[in-house]
Design goal:
Blueprint: H1 10-22, H2 35-49, H3 56-67
Length: 68
């Protein structure tokens, strides 16, 4: 069995659920993200506020330099 994660708007959600029910596809509806994901998001926000981050360009440059 495969898992597919989708993030529809409220209008899209109704259509997706109707489709899944019509096709008799089993599905779960989680209203909230898992606790470990919420903790990771909070940790990331705290690190950004503390100034512990780099830009995408800085990351690319470091990656390129490490590959030389």
């Amino acid at each position: 069995m495969e898992a597919i994660h989708i993030y529809p708007t409220k209008d899209q959600e109704r259509a997706v659920i109707a489709f899944l029910e019509a096709m008799e596809v089993a599905f779960d509806r989680d209203e909230e993200l898992p606790e470990h994901v919420l903790k990771g998001i909070q940790t990331g926000r705290e690190e950004i506020q503390a100034g512990r981050y780099i830009t995408l360009n800085e990351f690319k440059n470091r990656k390129r330099d490490s590959e030389l």
